[in-house]
Amino acid sequence: MIPPFDELRDYLAHIRIVHHIHGRIRLKLVSGYESLAGRGRQARRFQSILDRTPGIHAVRVNPLARSCSVEYDPRVIPAEAWGDFLAGVDSPAAAALEQLLREIHGEIRHEEL
Fold this sequence. Notes:
Helix content is 49%, strand content 23%. The protein is α+β, with helices and mostly antiparallel strands. The protein has one domain (5-112): 2-Layer Sandwich (Alpha-Beta Plaits), CATH 3.30.70.100. Strands 1-2-4-3 form a four-stranded antiparallel sheet, with helices on one face. The protein has four helices and four strands. The longest helix has 21 residues, at 92-112. GO terms for molecular function: metal ion binding.
């Protein structure tokens, strides 16, 4: 079962942007975050949400490298949304991205009931 969104939000606090160009971003989980098994489990949950998020075209997760590449449509998800959202910056772009992720998270949780 997928955990509450706030648990996923805690996981995302450990993610940093390592590369970002228009329409593509590479994220990395900072070292020291829980076990390899835990990283893989959380990474798969995050990927399942991203896979269904409008405006995201492709997601590639590599749990061993603790990284994730996301190809997205910047007309749907503004480029600044990623940095603002991950840094906890209160901006319209971050709020829009969080709303998309929360909606998909809720749909997945509902399907699992």
